[in-house]
Design brief:
mainly alpha; flat; 0% strand
Length: 196
Amino acid sequence: LFVYFPKTNYLGKTKSGAQPDLSKKQFAINLVTSLLGFLLGIISGFFLTPYWIKVLGIAAYGIVPLTSNLISFFALITSFLSSSVSRFITIEAGANNFERANRIFVTSFWACAILGAVILVIGATTSFFIDKLVVVPKGYEFDARVVFLMATVVFVLSTILIPFNVATFCANRLDLNSWTEILVRCLQILISVVLV
């Protein structure tokens, strides 16, 4: 697996003389898209929660935050991994050491894939026994298993994609991450409204 990093030195200047966009305009774009994503998350949570409670009922809706809280335990591990991968790849790419940056990328990709496989096994096992681990309303045992398993699969996919997010940091294009998060949030809203 090979990832292309543009040949930049530590100050961001490429051999061709071009520079990553460090302008105030790019900073403003990064900031605005981050705020849009944040606000969309708050607004969707504010409006969707009453909708889900109304449609699903309080007992069934309780499965959603429970699943979210259980998955967030795994997020602690991956946040440390994401920070370290971003740091080391960015340092090496900034120092024009692209061979080492690519080695770090490949290593981190396989580490994330292995971690994802471990989390998938733990999540699948947990989802199978979810009604034994937590109180699930009668008649919702299967639904709780499916919700927890699907949340685990989505989390595993995001874990495997950690190394690919580094490129936006190297190029100062954090707005691309924000637009992706906005798109994912919109898809979540659409799917949840259509399926519920």
